[in-house]
Amino acid sequence: MLIVVPDDNPPVLAGTPALERLRTIGEVRLYDSDATDPKILIDRLREADVALNIRGRTLFTAEALGACPKLKLISIWGTGTDNVDLPAAAARGVTVTNTPGANAIAVAEHTVALMLAVAKQLVPADQAMRQGGWPRNLVPQLRGKRLGLVGTGLIGREVAAMAKGLGMEVVAWTFHPSARLADSLGLRYVELDELLRTSDIVSLHLRATPETRHFLSRARLAMLKPGAILVNTARGGIVDEAVLGEAILQGRIAGAALDVVVDEPVKVDHPLAKSRNILLTPHVAGVTEEGMIGMATGAAEDVLSVLRGERPKYPVNREVLRKP
After folding, report:
1. What is the pLDDT of residues 62-75, one digit of tens each?
2. Which residue of the set 264, 290, 310, 319 is catalytic?
3. N or C end: fewer C-beta atoms under 10 angstroms in the chain?
């Protein structure tokens, strides 16, 4: 049994108990450099039975999957699966798993930190003071303000609980609303248009799929209140970045906080990097010691489950498991 980690860069799996668990059931080859070049990825996975994927920039295309005939499982460290051609994986009988709950608290905490930082204008205040200023900006308090959650998966639920602790009113929209979940979280599901038009802060928690590309389009961004703040810790492609930049430059919304953008890492000449009203962090919402250990352990446990013939905890393409 050959288990390949093609992209542990920067390293998160090396030296962990999760890696040692994997070594008890087969040979493990761990690469500490990028596998963004398709030829490099194929070369590393050609003989692999299992791929444990660390970085979302590693693309498991139909071509790559076709060149790896022994591959049975792709276990993803993290939540996002947009780097895997899921239909191609299903067609080849390759199970795909992820670890959506392992870093939920970390991402939720980062989301709330971004909300507070933008609302309280912490970065401009810090910069002004370092230049000899003493700014006295009038900033909003969050208690009593409305938070609109777009998506109520594991991360969105944690954000809801934290926002309720701050005294915010929480409304939400999702593809699959649940009255029971709404009751347990103390939130209310509303239509998307209402959420966008009435929320003081809009926070995105959707998966990146063809259906959610540019989910916040020009028309939907135009619905936001003039004083609204947009927070995105999900995936960059969910927002039409060009339109968002225009909206903030023209003062149509107050600001945004983005942990993710379409092209990462952000270039210095990126339009979003030039706006004073956009706070950027380098896709680190889930990067805590607890979150990283949880994701590594979860990914490894799914590998062990599949190889033992058991159902993994978080299968993404469940149709593969139903095949005889």
Report:
1. 999 999 999 999 99
2. 264
3. C
